Please model this.
Amino acid sequence: MEEHKEELAVVDFEGKNEDSAEEVVDSKMTDIELSDTLEQLCLSKAEEFHLIGYEHVTGADVWECVSDKYHKKGTPQLYEIVNDILSLKVTQFMNFVTLSMYRGEARKR
Model:
């Protein structure tokens, strides 16, 4: 019995073949692209909260909660910000909202 092995070309995120002699240009996100990406992540997390019954949560609320700790520590690496958004739990969010209300920092709606 003969085994068939398929060889797949490794393709990077820009669609160029890794084995090619072309040098991949270092592409960094612009501030606008970064802001849009983070906004989409926050909206995605807000939609997740909507699915479990928290209909009034917005992407801005999620960002306010996640970014609150950055005022104390400074802005972290991008992967840490993404992790903070995607791993945000409802209990963490509700604790933030409750403490913000006690401090009088609740956003006006």
Notes: The two ends are 69 Å apart (CA to CA). Helices lie at 31-51, 59-67, 70-73, 78-86, 90-103.
